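Running this now, will post back.
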Amino acid sequence: MQFLDDSLHPENMDKVVITVAPYGPEWMPQDFPEDIPVTMEEQVQKAVDCYNAGATVLHLHVRELDGKGSKRLSKFNELIAGVRAAVPDMIIQVGGSISFAPEDDGQEAKWLSDDTRHMLAELQPKPDQVTVAINTTQMNIMELLYPEYLKGTSLEHPAYQAAYREMTVPAGPGWVEEHLRRLQGAGIQPHFQLTGMHALETLERLVRAGVYTGPLNLTWIGIGGGFDGPNPFNFFNFVHRAPDGCTLTAESLLKNVLPFNMMAMAMGLHPRCGIEDTIIDQHGKRMTSVQQIEQCVRVARELGREIASGREAREIYRIGTWYDSAEATLQANGMAPNRKSGQKNLPRRAAA
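Update: finished.
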């Protein structure tokens, strides 16, 4: 991304698109009963509350009545339909880490295959976005979940800690290419969840090869444990290398969430908050998803930035936009064109 002398002036920035992740699948309802919805009605209402507070992108996971994360396609369809009816302008972004399971014991256990994640392209009603990881990566969230923050929660249990410590995000090249093909075929926009510079470089190669032909909406994730660590230099290096025409959201963990959101908003980028990222404020006290959104709104206003409405967020994200070639995709995302045969030196962007 390029920064001109007036790039930090709020009048030259997009409005702020706030992403909220209010379902927090790593926590159990007893960990934060005031803010973890369980029934379908509560889960829909949580989306409404977050939208009314200022969030226009809903990062969606679903719970069963026992409080555990759902792996049933039907439950995702039910929640998406409920949210769509209640807040039709909100961007629905389904977390792509889900693998669906059979609805009952009589179904074939094909869910044991990684192929079941492709079923995200079959959701009905279809979401606006599905998050897509690039490159298989370790996701050891326990690395930065300090014991004092886990005291009295379900994640204090050794078995849960062991499971989350060994967690990986499988996203090999064959799977990614097929997943992008299916999502694009269904008209669902991928939102790329990137673990660091290597993932950004792989994504660029996919764009240059014509595997993906759409807007680049990116999230940099600084949670450690196989992802970039929460070091500002990691973030700034990523910002420096990100394409000029992309949108970029910052995601971090616990007490790192607020500082990275403030840095992102100060630079004209976008924040993500919610109990999936942190259930505490900077003083270690419980903080609801709505309170975190309200905090982002206050910071944005202090910086002179306006909050995007749902419809404005759709325009900023270019929801529903696709391109017909690799070259058109490169140009629309502010990237240098591919090298033509025999071309010397660096390929230059077309003059206006």
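The longest helix spans residues 40-53. More later if anyone needs it.
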